[in-house]
Amino acid sequence: MSIQENIAAVRRQIDEAALRAGRNPAEITLEAATKVQTSETIRAAIAAGITVCGENRVQEFNAHWADNAYQGAKVHFIGHLQKNKVKYLVGKVDLIESVDSLALLEAINSRAEKLGVVQDILIEVNVGGEASKSGIEPEKLPALFETAAALPHVNPRGLMAIPPVAEISGGNSRYFAEMQQLFVDIKSKTYDNKVSIDCLSMGMSGDFADAIAYGSTQVRIGTALFGARPPMRANG
Questions:
Q1: Are 203 and 217 in contact (CB under 8 A)?
Q2: How far apart are CA 14 and CA 20, in angstroms?
Q3: Cβ distance 73 to 95 under 8 Å?
Q4: Average pLDDT, whole number, for the chain?
Q5: Residue 233's pLDDT is what?
Q6: CA dihedral in degrees (96, 101, 28, 168; nearest 10)?
Q7: How does DSSP assign 168-211, residue by residue?
Q8: Which domains does the chain possess?
Q9: What is the DSSP code (8-state) at residue 220?
Q10: What's the pTM?
């Protein structure tokens, strides 16, 4: 199937999952996870209707940005981010989804202040408690989010999570349910009306329908759009 056909198929599944959950399909953003894709593939996806691209690696983002591959779409950063790479993203990407520490948060705020911008972010939660994954522990989320809301050059819009790989259908439902409750709890706080919390980013190719059932507003889809990823380049 072509990228255009894959996008249409995924959108149908998103719509169906939303309607089953009693939700408006328009509430859910399809984000194309473009890890290891070429600039040509990204352009083809945007031409076929993708409006948000999610990049995992700063080096790939830099190359695609220089190549003007994202024209016509927003760009989010969804991979693990080191403090020394913040300078390559702030003021360029529309949303940094993977903020998981006070040090990273402060680095983003500092860079944004130098550029005179306000950077939209999400706080990443390690909802499965996996040592191999980034993300803040759920119990530490309120304090970090409160700090983010108080910083002048950071705009925390919500939460992101990558649950453990599910071996059976519905296997991640408990993690999605926990994230939904965390999101509701965060939204219930006013933060002096400084921020607008509107994004719960969770769900990938294998489980996005379940994520939508638990309130996801943004699903990050790679394989279902582009097929199996090509091998990683050795120097990438």
A1: no
A2: 10
A3: no
A4: 94
A5: 52
A6: 120
A7: STTTTHHHHHHHHHHHHHHHHS-GGG-----EEE---TTTHHHH
A8: 3-226 (3.20.20.10)
A9: E
A10: 0.94
